Amino acid sequence: MHFQRLRLAGFKSFVDPTEFRIEPGLTGIVGPNGCGKSNLLEALRWVMGANSAKAMRAGGMDDVIFAGASNRPSRNHAEVSLTIDNSARRAPPAFNDHPVIEVVRRIDRGAGSTYRINGREVRAKDVQLLFADASTGASSPALVRQGQISELIAAKPQNRRLILEEAAGVSGLHSRRHEAELRLRAAETNLTRLDDVARELE
Ligand code: ATP
């Protein structure tokens, strides 16, 4: 899947609508200290479903909304949209009819996040699975933040294994297995309930 465009509005320091075109190949972000390089990477993680405020260097999720500056009032919502080129059909098969996929996450102060894929409202889980099935996502090792290489060298073997699983593309399968197990458990509970009802009727 090729990320084509990232649009931000009201996200951290990007208060005005800002658009970045992402060309094929390696992308580097350069600029003076504090200009918002890390905020950009965080916007990418956030739109892919990151749900830890700590990973966003924020106290709470609302902190990703522009907090105001000396000459600008704060905002009450933030939106990030990621456009993916799927002309090579690298996205999961469910998206084969979509040559372009647009994922949008919006947060309203005090009201949490909503997600849309190609205009249709979906759950955070759906967005996370779309990226996990394509072997990427908010915790993808392809997004390297400051200090991450030294953390990797010092990491415990179990944590390094998670990174290898992500790179091998099996982490999407883990999430799907977990979802299937939850559904199975709910079905078992329903069956037990039905048995009780049937016994009462006998
Ligand atoms: P460095 O090179 O020092 O790592 P950087 O280019 O990665 O810097 P960021 O850390 O992405 O810069 O951006 C920091 C800037 O973003 C700071 O000026 C900070 O005030 C601003 N910022 C972060 N969160 C918000 C917010 N919610 N509202 C407004 N501005 C914010």
UniProtKB/TrEMBL annotation:
It is found in: Cytoplasm. Residues 177-202 form a coiled coil. The chain holds residues 1 to 202 of 1147 of the full protein. The gene is smc. This is Chromosome partition protein Smc. Signal peptide: none annotated. It comes from Phenylobacterium kunshanense. Required for chromosome condensation and partitioning. It comes from the Bacteria. Belongs to the SMC family. ATP binds at P32, N33, G34, C35, G36, K37, S38, N39.
